[in-house]
Write a structure and sequence with these properties.
The chain has about 230 residues and is of the alpha+beta class. About 55% of the residues lie in helices and about 15% in strands.
């Protein structure tokens, strides 16, 4: 019975069962590594448990497909015909999610073609790059990190003193709005600031409140512009 089972694969080339088991286990392990990195670094709103499990099972399936094909062109065309009848309509909201899918497919291909060293090195390189992007927040932009609204009671021509104080604490100070109000000679102004030291924002607010002519100050901390 066992002899019949082991000889049950009839193909152009005999099946190396030990290599098959190693390929599937390695694809499973590398898929787990990619899935763990995804779970650790994911920061969007489209997290899905089923997507994480897909990252694990997909390299195993791809490796199995490559082992079944075994460089057989007829089987390859047959597989294309079968997949043509199956249509996947899952929409990935994040482009980085697509990168993870491509990574596990590539790892599955490497395992399925018995390129075990390439699979391990590719998995480690992918994990290292994804961790680098997560740890460094690469690609995040900070054009401003604080919005300050000031009620200025002195004439608008004397705003230079206010701007000088803002420039002392910030790399850039952009006037977002300036509005005159009836009832007093001053104006309401709003500035977008890129602070030299974000930890000293409270110190800036205290100096603004102590400045002659400032009646009211309000501030709002702005987030990064990683998604627009």
């Amino acid at each position: 019975m066992n002899n019949w089972f082991l000889r049950g694969d009839f193909g152009a080339a005999p099946t190396n069962y030990s290599a098959l088991v190693i390929a599937l286990l390695l694809a499973f392990a590398c898929g787990h590594a990619i899935a763990w990195i995804y779970m650790l670094t994911h920061s969007g709103l489209s997290y899905s448990r089923s997507y994480v499990t897909t990252l694990i099972i997909m390299p195993v399936i791809v490796a199995m497909v490559m082992l079944i094909l075994a460089n057989n062109l007829v089987l390859a065309f047959g597989l294309m015909a079968i997949f043509a009848m199956v249509r996947f309509r899952s929409i990935l909201r994040d482009t980085l999610d697509t990168t993870y899918v491509l990574a596990v497919i590539a790892i599955g291909l490497a395992c399925g073609t018995l390129k075990f060293t390439s699979a391990v090195i590719g998995c480690l390189a992918t994990c290292a790059i994804m961790l680098y992007f997560w740890a460094t927040a690469f690609g995040t932009r900070y054009r401003y990190n604080l919005i300050v609204n000031v009620q200025w009671l002195r004439p608008a021509g004397e705003l230079a003193e206010l701007r000088q104080l803002l420039k002392r604490h910030s790399r850039t100070a952009q006037c977002a709005s300036q509005r005159s109000n009836e009832g007093y000679a001053g104006v309401d102004v709003s500035y977008r600031l890129l602070l030299r030291d974000p930890a000293r924002a409270d110190e800036l607010i205290d100096e603004l409140r102590a400045l002659k002519g400032v009646a009211r100050v309000s501030s709002l901390h702005a987030g990064d512009e990683s998604e627009m």
